[in-house]
Write a structure and sequence with these properties.
Layout (H helix, E strand, L loop, with lengths): L2 H7 L3 E3 L7 H25 L6 H27 L8 H11 L11 H5 L30 H22 L6 E3 L1
Antiparallel strand pairs: 1-2
Helix pairs in contact: 2-3, 2-6, 3-4, 3-6
């Protein structure tokens, strides 16, 4: 067997070393994965590897918002010991800022715009579904600028990379070959 065949035959297993994580860290590791996935989809659309469709952009939007939600919940959980039972980003962000008021815990992303409640495109519904809970097609949100989303997804990744170690640093993932 030559080296190329050996590489093709090799299987990489990523172990879920969940016992190595605190509860806030479990939220943080998923927040990172959602942020990375959001960024990768935008990059892939701009590179022509994925179709530049509204549905793909909408998926990126969901992954981005969910990364923010999971990060905020993990940060809140770290200081309060309680899991916030909401998907609404504005109250989660308000709670986060009360718990982490120092400038060091501010975001690079346009957080005020990200968390602002908008009844025409609710955070937990618009990016996930083609219509609202009453069966009406969403109105008022009809375009994504991919270059803007690329910058914002990169900023979110930078925010998580900077903030998580300040709150509850993650252990390295367990990888076995």
């Amino acid at each position: 067997m030559n080296q190329h065949d050996a590489e093709r035959e090799r299987t990489t297993v990523i172990d879920d070393n969940i016992g190595d994580y605190t509860k806030p860290q479990l939220f943080f590791r998923l927040a990172i994965a959602y942020a990375d996935s959001s960024h990768q989809i935008v990059r892939s659309m701009l590179a022509g590897d994925l179709p530049q469709t509204f549905a793909h952009a909408q998926t990126t939007h969901f992954l981005f918002d969910h990364a923010v939600e999971l990060f905020l919940k993990g940060a809140i959980l770290k200081l309060t010991g309680k899991i916030e039972n909401t998907h609404h980003l504005q109250p989660l962000f308000g709670r986060y800022r009360k718990l982490y008021p120092k400038k060091a815990f501010e975001f690079i992303i346009r957080i005020a715009e990200t968390v602002k409640a908008n009844p025409q495109s609710p955070h937990s519904e618009f990016p996930r579904y083609p219509m609202d809970t009453e069966g009406n097609v969403w109105e008022g949100y009809n375009a994504y600028t991919l270059e803007t989303w690329l910058a914002e997804t990169e900023h979110l990744r930078q925010d998580l990379e900077r903030l998580i170690p300040e709150i509850d640093p993650l252990p390295p993932p367990a990888i076995s070959e």
